[in-house]
Amino acid sequence: MVRAVSVHTYHGTAGKEGLMAPRVYVTRVIPRAGVDRLQQAGFDVDVNEGDVPLRQDDLVEKARSYDALVTLLTDRVDRRVLEAAASADLKIVANVAVGYDNVDVAAATDLGIPVTNTPGVLTETTADFAWALLMSVARRVPEAEQFFRAGKYHGWGILMLLGEDVHGKTLGIAGFGRIGQAVARRAAGFDVKILYYDPVLGPDVGKPFGAQHVELDTLLRESDFVSVHVPLTPETRHLISTQQLQLMKPTAYLINTSRGPVVDEGALVEALRAGIIKGAALDVFENEPLAHPGLLELTNVVLTPHIASASRETRDRMATTAADNAIAALQGRRPPNLVNPEVWTERK
Ligand code: GLV
Predict the structure, then answer these.
(1) Which residue minimizes the CA distance to atom 3 of ligand 1?
(2) Which residues constitute the domain of residue 86?
(3) Which residues contact 189 (CB under 8 A, 6 or more apart)?
(4) pTM
(5) Helices (H), ranges, the chain
């Protein structure tokens, strides 16, 4: 497939007086606030207005031609891209996402290229959405809505579309970082018991939330809702697979707003089909934009297209945060959200 790349240039002012302004390439449309921020800092900003991911060869070419790249989670910033970037002394890869599994950070570090993410600004919005999914699947909201629209509501029935209570249940949070904690904070009004598993953070972190630190197996065995909030790393790939699903209650639900490959989608489909667990709500998938075809056939799942952080305010903040990181690097200051800080130390 041939994909046309339509680029729009926003001229900055840093290049006046005969000097070239540093050039930033934004690999795909981002909220205007981010582009404005870069332009106001004086940089020339080229935006791929096509709003489809660049082909890998094009990304390599951009890495070789610009001073900074603002990337999205749909870009695969691999060693080849980074080698091209290093050969041209690219100053930063500023990823517009908190997750950065799309960037080969080890290669970037080897090559001395700073990589940044956008932590903090999407925490609350993502936690809101994890709860939205949890409520949706437990109370069958999308199914009920489809039922209504399909003209199937011919009169109230006491057994119609029965779901499960959320209040009073046990919520298991796998990964108790910023987003996991924000999910826990929201649980107070639902009077749920909170368990959490975190391979790094210990029992003290959960105390302010009344949350109990447990091993993953215990969390899976005891929770009615399991919400996943770990980053995707080699260690967390397929953290939830057949063996883990089998530990869960047949009445339990799995919610994933982290990264698709944290859950073994094939194993999940099998577990849902076999009634090993009751349902799932997924915002992320192993091979986005595709979902395992088995998921589409099931009614006990809620599927959304990776929108957990998709509020207007948050997407603006993600774009301006990435812009601020790029601006800092281009001005020779340490970017606020470096994920490979060792690179900066070396540079100083
Ligand atoms: C979204 O998935 C993000 O990592 O910010």
Answers:
(1) 97
(2) 7-119+312-347
(3) none
(4) 0.94
(5) 32-40, 56-65, 79-87, 105-110, 123-138, 141-149, 178-186, 216-222, 242-247, 265-273, 293-297, 312-330, 341-347
Q: What's the 169 CA to ligand 1 centre distance in angstroms?
A: 28
C-alpha distances in Å from residue 114, one per residue of 85, 179, 319: 11, 24, 18
Beta bridge partners of 115: 93
| Closest C-alpha to ligand 1, atom 5 | 97
Per the structure, the count of domains in the chain is 2
CA of 309 to the centre of ligand 1 (A): 7
Q: Which of 109, 111, 71 is nearest to 341 (CA)?
A: 109
Q: How remote is the CA of residue 64 from the centroid of ligand 1, in Å?
A: 26
- Digits of tens for pLDDT over the chain (348 positions)? 334 456 777 777 665 565 688 999 999 999 999 999 999 999 999 999 987 899 999 999 999 999 999 999 999 999 999 999 999 999 999 999 999 999 999 999 999 999 999 999 999 999 999 999 999 999 999 999 999 999 999 999 999 999 999 999 999 999 999 999 999 999 999 999 999 999 999 999 999 999 999 999 999 999 999 999 999 999 999 999 999 999 999 999 999 999 999 999 999 999 999 999 999 999 999 999 999 999 999 999 999 999 999 999 999 999 999 999 999 999 999 999 999 999 997 454
Beta bridge partners of 95: 71
80 catalytically annotated: no
State whether 216 and 257 are in the same domain.
yes
Q: Is residue 263 part of a domain?
A: yes
Q: What per-residue string of b and e applies to 186-209 under the rule 16 or more CB within 10 Å gives b? A: bbeebebbbbbbbeebeeebbeeb
Answer yes or no: are the C-beta atoms of 338 and 95 closer than 8 Å: no
Distance CA 64, CA 76 (A): 15
Residue 266 domain flag: yes
What one-letter code names the amino acid at 221? R
Together in a domain, 132 and 234: yes
